[in-house]
Design brief:
The protein is an alpha+beta fold. It contains 25 helices and 25 strands. Strands 2, 3, 4, 5, 10, 18 and 19 form a 7-stranded mixed sheet that branches. It has a 5-stranded antiparallel sheet with strand order 12-11-23-22-21. A 3-stranded antiparallel sheet has the order 1-8-9. Helix 10 packs antiparallel against helix 23 and helix 13 (about 330-340) crosses helix 15.
Length: about 675
């Protein structure tokens, strides 16, 4: 009996264990089913995407950057394809310096290339590919390909490069592109357009290239590639083509731009010519210039140092950022303010003995012995300083400020490129907020006098002065100045014009404007700039100016021969033409050149001849103007249409670049035609 009981007990215990184990197995199986359900159903989408990502790679296709053209369709910035040798530091096995030395035995790598590479390294991350040599020849590509196994982390890539075919011509307007630095990359990553910049290494840095980056960049395409376990591309699964950037058409005429730059020669200065009725900029000159091609691959140290440390400051856009005292070119605007405020009438006579005494200070007139009795017309035509000394005293600094501010002096014009300087239009409030010491914040009455002749604290850009001149020429209607005329859509081929944007109508009396215009016409007929406009087939209005760079002591006379060249007076000129129906207004300065009548007005005459009569000066005339030795045109002028382009006086490298630009433009047109044909065929299907 006892044995039977033991057997039954063992069987019962065994059954209990079977139940427990069965329960455990069942629970485990249920957990497995739940887990499988969770993975296969609930997380299906997520896990499927991860699996796809493990076997696919998304490769961005960088779009062709849009071209930049002048108003007549001449290409000023385009692209070309070339091979580059690039190093990804994080993938390099051996010490980087050793790798570069070994590469130099295969491909020609100059010291300049090494220095540029080091500079780019400081602006990039270790996992980013950095170019050490660009524009490799086919022979160099083949030579490296044969020994590629020796250089892990080094590869050759085909890249698009920006090309500025006319080198230094209009460089401040066009600007340049450069490699994206760390700060720019962080800004892009935070923007809504970050996805569109995947794979992009270069962006606009200056001028139109920078300000119209969105239009020029295009839309990045993508390729979906199947990859092996080792990450090697096996086949292309899907793709969307990149859309090239749009073409930007400038309002400037590049032939006019080149003419003006040639007329300046080696002299420094700035000129802005615009259409007063539309605000379109016809020429936007800053001298000296620089070659934007230097920046495309990453500028080397020597060239950067030469540009950055040059006493001539070639990187400074003088038309946009350079500020100058306007000198006597300010007088027509002062006369207009006098008429508007009732401080003077057209017939008011002011005696000029050749000086103006204010307290114990003697303010000298430009003419020894004075101009006699001077009315407003004579004050403008003969540029009488004493007339404007007394006017400044009677108006006071704050009334002058109130009258000049609406014309745009000391204000941002809103032109469509970045970096514009405000300049200085002084007032008592301006001085209080500008200076820290109490004795410096006080406005002294004697400071007001020199403001009347465009000296003192007055400091404006040529853009501001040209804008103000255009407003007067346009009877008080201010137009916003702009450098871009239209944007051409690369897909639809439609042009979107830049709107002609009125800023406002100034309440200027037509009678008062007529007085000022008559005075400025007199300047070019019988006044200080009359010799420059002898024989002109149109009537123009102008005003010369000579602005002091430093103050001559009361007991001394100005003598340019005894003064350092960079301390000599600036030559200025403002003008518009034709006087009865203005099509062009301009303001210009030739730094340290002396009299505006001798060195600035002759350039303006050639600009007017180009725009209004379609005439281009002779080479003899251009060379004489460069030296300040010609006022009226000399030699035989020629029709603008007959001037060869590319210019004959470009050097061989510039001619080749221009030819490449022309060929590239044709190739782009053919490529666009093919894309259009494919799209049309697809639409038919």
């Amino acid at each position: 009996m006892r044995v039977i009981r033991n057997i039954e007990f063992d069987l019962q215990r065994f059954r209990s264990r079977v139940v427990v184990v069965s329960g455990f197995i069942l629970v485990a199986f249920l957990l497995l089913v739940v887990r499988l359900f969770y993975l296969q159903v609930i997380r299906y989408e997520d896990l499927n995407e991860q699996a796809e990502n493990n076997r696919t790679a998304i490769v961005p296709i960088v779009p062709n950057r849009g071209v930049i053209m002048d108003r007549n369709g001449i290409v000023l910035a385009t692209n070309y394809s070339a091979y580059t040798l690039e190093i990804t530091p994080s993938k390099v096995v051996a010490p980087l310096e050793e790798v570069i030395e070994q590469l130099a035995s295969v491909i020609d790598i100059q010291s300049r290339d090494k220095r540029r590479f080091k500079k780019l390294m400081t602006e990039s991350k270790s996992f980013e590919s950095v170019p050490i040599r660009t524009r490799l020849s086919d022979e160099e590509v083949a030579r490296f390909a044969a020994q590629r196994f020796r250089f892990p982390g080094v590869e050759i890539r085909a890249r698009l490069f920006r090309n500025y075919p006319y080198n230094q011509l209009a460089s401040h307007v066009i600007g340049y592109i450069g490699r994206i630095n760390t700060a720019e990359k962080a800004k892009i990553e935070e923007s809504e357009d970050a996805g569109n910049y995947r794979g992009t290494d270069y962006i606009g840095k200056l001028g139109v290239e920078q300000s119209y980056e969105v239009q020029l960049h295009g839309t990045t395409g993508v390729q979906e590639m199947e990859t092996s376990a080792g990450g090697r591309a096996v086949r292309r699964l899907n793709s969307s083509q990149a859309v090239p950037g749009n073409s930007v058409v400038l309002s400037i005429d590049i032939k006019l731009q080149k003419l003006v730059e040639d007329l300046y020669g080696k002299r420094r200065g700035a000129l802005v010519a615009l259409d007063p009725k539309t605000g379109e900029i016809l020429a936007f000159v800053s001298k000296p210039t620089f070659d934007p091609n230097l920046f495309v691959d990453g500028i080397d140290f020597e060239n950067w140092q030469a540009l950055n440390e040059s006493i001539d400051k070639p990187l400074l856009n003088r038309a946009l950022r350079g500020t100058y005292p306007p000198g006597s070119t300010y007088k027509p605007f002062m006369a207009l303010a006098a008429l508007q405020t009732g401080k003077r009438s057209e017939k008011t006579l002011i005696p000029d003995p050749g000086f103006f005494m204010f307290g114990n200070h003697r303010f000298r007139d430009d003419k020894e012995g004075g101009h006699g009795m001077v009315d407003m017309y004579k004050s403008i035509v003969e540029s009488c300083d004493t007339y404007y000394y007394t006017l400044a005293r009677d108006m006071g600094v704050d009334l002058m400020y109130e009258q000049m501010k609406p014309l745009g002096f000391g204000q941002i014009t809103g032109i469509d490129i970045l970096g514009e300087s405000r300049g200085v239009l002084p007032s008592t409030e301006w001085k209080r907020t500008t200076y820290k010491r109490a004795d410096q914040q006080r406005w002294y009455s004697g400071e007001t006098i020199s403001l009347g002749i465009g000296q003192g604290y007055n400091s404006f850009t040529m853009l501001q002065i040209a804008h103000a001149m255009g407003t007067v020429a346009n009877n008080g209607l201010k137009m916003k100045p702009h450098l871009v005329r239209e944007v051409l859509d690369v897909e639809t081929k439609t042009a979107t014009p830049v709107a002609k944007e009125p800023v406002g109508q100034l309440p200027l009396s037509p009678e008062n404007l007529d007085v000022i215009k008559r005075g400025m016409i007199g300047v070019n007929i019988e006044g200080t700039s009359a010799t420059s406009f002898v024989g002109a087939p149109y009537v123009s209005a102008g005003k010369t100016g000579t602005a002091q760079v430093y103050t001559v002591k009361q007991n001394e006379k100005y003598n340019a021969a005894n003064i350092d060249e960079r301390m000599r007076d600036h030559a200025l000129f403002v003008a518009f033409a034709p006087a009865d129906d203005p099509k062009v207004a301009l303001a210009m300065v030739v730094e340290n050149a002396g009299f505006g009548a001798q060195n600035a007005a002759p350039i303006a005459r050639r600009v007017f001849d180009f725009v209004l009569t379609g005439q281009y000066p002779s080479q003899e005339d251009i060379e004489a103007v460069q030296k300040g030795q010609a006022t009226r045109p000399i030699g035989k002028s020629r029709p603008v249409a007959s001037v060869p382009w590319p210019p004959k006086n470009l050097d061989s490298s510039e001619q080749e670049a221009a030819a490449d630009a022309k060929a590239s433009a044709k190739a782009d047109a053919k490529a666009d035609a093919k894309i259009d044909a494919k799209a049309e065929a697809k639409n038919r299907r």
